[in-house]
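#struct-queue
[09:14] JT: dropping the first one here, sequence first, then the structure tokens:
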Amino acid sequence: MTTPRSDEAKLAREQRWQALMRAAQDGDGAAYARLLSEILPMLRRAVAYKWPRAPDVEDVVQEILLSVHTVRHTYDPARPFMPWLMTIAARRTIDAVRRGTRRNANETTVDVMPETFPGDRPKIEQETSDDQDAIRRAMAQLPDGQRRAVELTKLRGLSLQEASAVTGKSVASLKVSVHRAVKAMRELLERKS
């Protein structure tokens, strides 16, 4: 329930913010800085309260402030400031929640992180199976250019640009070589199984 005193305070705040925004639109940097510093705590509370599922309140607030800065010329000084501001806040928050939802839809959680050990030795003996020998034999059957492209990009982990510098071949040529090599190796390995 609002009291007459709180209504008066809200009206005074609205009028102050309208005046600051008008001054900011006229180029008064100090008024603009004051407006931003005054609306910041209110935006934090509003985002945290109205949209508790927002991924990160501070990130959303920064996006709101950036949007306010970008579209401040659209504010009509003859109209109330708060509805304009809260519309921007609602839209930026909804955008952030949507991004978070899309990101979370593609992520999975892991209860126990898999163990990994440094070095080239496998952590269990099964990983040294005949598959590695089959892969080595398949690679040995590749033409020199394809084998070199796979060694540089897949085994040594070089980017296509780095491998291009090493071999003198174009990035496009290396892509084709890697693609053909992987396809040929897959066919060779499938025949052996």
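[09:21] JT: and here's the second one, same format:
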Amino acid sequence: MSRFTDTLNAQVGNEFGASQQYVAIAVWYDTETLPQLATFFYRQAVEERNHAMMLVQYLLDAGEEVVIPGIGAPQITFAGPVEPVALALAQERRVTDQITALAEIAREERNRIGEQYMQWFLKEQLEEMSSMSALLKTVERAAAVNILLAEDYLARAASGAAGVEADAPRAAGGVL
């Protein structure tokens, strides 16, 4: 296997790990009776799972070996409503670094198809970091007054939520 394929297989695990972390965050918010924050993170969990399946589909399409790595347990306890979003932003930054490294490895290996494929994920990561950064600022401000203000914000923002992008890569199993 090439270094790109090895790293892409590792990224499948990273994406599944991100998904599981978002489920844990959603469950924590559900337990705290903050349904809008819970719903936001349940959706994020599905999105991260789909990213893993998109990478699996790429490997299948490229005729490469697919290895589904194990993942560690997510963090399940938090000190307050700000901590889960701060963790999520740190996770998005880490994933951005991982995707950037994948694009660079593809370029180094002169794998133009792999490099081009990673461009969609780079664009997606910019959106994810921006969204999570805005949510963190909102939750920080709301928590100082009343965390239910963040719930109101998310309820208003959810009305404009978009579906799957038309240019998104295909996910293995055809499930999005």
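[09:30] RK: nice, looked through the second one.
[09:31] RK: The longest helix spans residues 112-145.
[09:31] JT: good to know. Residues 26 and 39 are 7 Å apart (CA to CA).
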